[in-house]
Design a protein that fits this description.
- The protein has a single domain (3-49, 77-308), classed as Aromatic compound dioxygenase (Protocatechuate 3,4-Dioxygenase, subunit A, Sandwich), CATH 2.60.130.10.
- It is globular, with a radius of gyration of 18 Å.
- The longest helix has 17 residues, at 27-43.
- The strands form three sheets. Strands 1, 2, 5, 10 and 11 form a five-stranded mixed beta sheet that branches.
- The protein is an alpha+beta fold and 314 residues long.
- It starts with a helix and ends in a 6-residue tail after the last strand.
- It contains five helices and eleven strands.
- The protein binds 2-acetamido-2-deoxy-beta-D-glucopyranose (6 copies).
- One 2-acetamido-2-deoxy-beta-D-glucopyranose binds next to loops.
- One of its GO terms (molecular function) is oxidoreductase activity, acting on single donors with incorporation of molecular oxygen, incorporation of two atoms of oxygen.
- It holds the Pfam family Dioxygenase_C.
- It comes from Penicillium olsonii.
Length: 314
């Protein structure tokens, strides 16, 4: 079975914080979500005037002496963009989730080379059609040549089934393939009063059998402990976000992406997780604008709205 098939079937799960298999939602559930999202889409202009008054600082007890920095970069987009009101349904988080390496920060690049990407995410409550303040948005993605931090010992060019064979492990609910403690291209940050947050990263590369994507989770129930580690309860949304094929082509023609020649890139059109992500008219594709107003290869701001359904907590 191909990795993408395994992912789509929810057969690949993670160890640690999120045990158990994650199945794709039923047709009925998807329809229900779609109805919620349609309702929000028509109301979305009113989000801009909404203001939720809650103090995010309260979520950072003992912050004075921890390693993270509480200094909010203002998102490029201050409010949720009504022309890109898109909602992602639940898809699998895949085998490279590693909560231990997720770091609270607004720049998760570390030393990874690549084209700068400022990812602006707006989060909407699909039930109320209001922005969600103070929800933690959690990203992880591969580097320009397809590797994930914490899993750098695994080849991005080896099909997943083969990789498991090589490692002599069988597929199970407690699959733990992590190889190290690197943290690059993993980060999380809460949304502000407008339901917005911004994360700086690089445009992702690709690995075997998957289209270019960024994993994203949204947590409503979370807190920073006194020692700087995170505690989260429920995850309300798990998704993957993608880029347009023409944009991907342009970026993949640049260094260091272009040096990844060991495998051919999978496009959105043939990626089976992407297919699941677009069911019922969802659009998980990031809108981008060049930072210099002209050339995306110099860096870009990406924008996407994620609708979450708090009544369906995993
Ligand atoms: C989107 O926002 C713009 C300006 O903020 C407004 O002119 C337009 O009517 C809005 N569109 C919808 C569909 O609400
Ligand atoms: C932070 O920790 C240092 C050393 O433990 C201590 O001297 C300092 O007062 C602490 N700062 C705050 C704001 O608690
Ligand atoms: C991506 O990460 C792998 C594993 O650490 C590393 O070997 C590779 O050089 C990185 N890619 C780039 C473009 O730096
Ligand atoms: C693979 O695992 C099986 C079962 O634990 C064991 O019998 C076998 O020797 C292992 N093979 C290798 C190559 O490690
Ligand atoms: C941080 O605190 C939590 C809860 O008190 C504890 O379980 C965890 O082991 C601590 N982690 C570190 C790295 O100190
Ligand atoms: C990529 O696809 C082309 C065209 O199908 C093929 O000729 C080539 O061998 C493939 N390269 C790799 C590394 O699989």
């Amino acid at each position: 079975m191909q990795l993408s098939k395994l992912l789509a079937a929810g057969l690949v799960t993670l160890a640690a914080a999120h045990p158990g298999p994650h199945h794709q939602p039923s047709k009925r559930e998807l329809t229900r979500r779609h109805e919620l999202s349609s309702r929000c889409a028509s109301n979305v202009a009113s989000f801009n005037s909404r203001r939720v008054k809650r103090n995010i600082a309260k979520r950072f007890p003992g912050s004075a002496n921890t390693t993270y920095q509480i200094q909010a970069e203002a998102p490029y987009y201050e409010t949720i963009q009504n022309d890109t009101c898109v909602l992602t349904p639940e898809v699998t988080e895949g085998p490279y989730i590693w909560p231990q390496s997720q770091t609270l920060r607004q720049d998760m690049t570390e030393d990874q080379p690549g084209i700068p990407l400022w990812l602006d995410v707006g989060v909407l409550d699909m039930e109320t059609c209001e922005p969600l303040e103070g929800v933690l948005v959690d990203f992880w993605h591969c580097n320009a040549t397809g590797s994930y931090s914490s899993f750098t010992g695994l080849s991005p060019n080896t099909p997943f089934a083969e990789l498991l064979e090589d490692l002599n492990v069988t597929m199970s609910g407690d699959l733990d393939l992590h190889t190290d403690d690197t943290t690059w291209l993993r980060g999380m940050w809460p949304t502000d009063k407008n339901g917005m947050m911004e994360m700086k990263t690089i445009f992702p590369g690709f690995y075997v059998e998957r289209a270019i994507h960024i994993h994203v989770q949204v947590h409503t129930d979370w807190t920073v402990r006194g020692n700087g580690t995170m505690a989260y309860g429920d995850t309300v949304s798990t998704g993957q976000i993608y880029f347009d094929e023409p944009l991907s082509q342009k970026i993949m023609a640049q260094e260091p992406y272009v040096s990844h020649t060991q495998i051919n890139r999978t496009t959105n059109a043939v990626d089976s997780v992407f297919e699941g992500d677009t069911d019922n008219g969802y659009n998980p594709v990031v809108s981008v604008i060049p930072v210099d107003g002209n050339d995306v290869t110099k860096g870009m701001i990406g924008y996407i709205t994620i609708g979450v359904d708090k009544t369906k907590v995993e």
